Amino acid sequence: MSRKCQLTGKKANNAYAVSHSHRRTKKLQEVNLQWKRIWWAEGNRWVRLRLSTRALKTLEHRSLESLAKEAGIDLNRL
User: Fold this and answer.
1) pLDDT bracket for residue 64 (50, 70, 90)
2) Residue 64: which of 25, 27, 33, 36 has the closest Cα?
């Protein structure tokens, strides 16, 4: 599985690591991904997702059902 958030689609960002002498080398800024079990009330069961921490904060305000619909994910298949 790729390092990508299943709800928001966030993935790694290409960037430069800049030294004191201002030499630039390429690096990847990875997303902070966590495996989480989230209770899906409509399906009456737990769903295991790989989410970014930003998506976890968003889940506190919005429902799992609405975020999954926006991302085009069928929760019945997970």
Assistant:
1) very high
2) 36
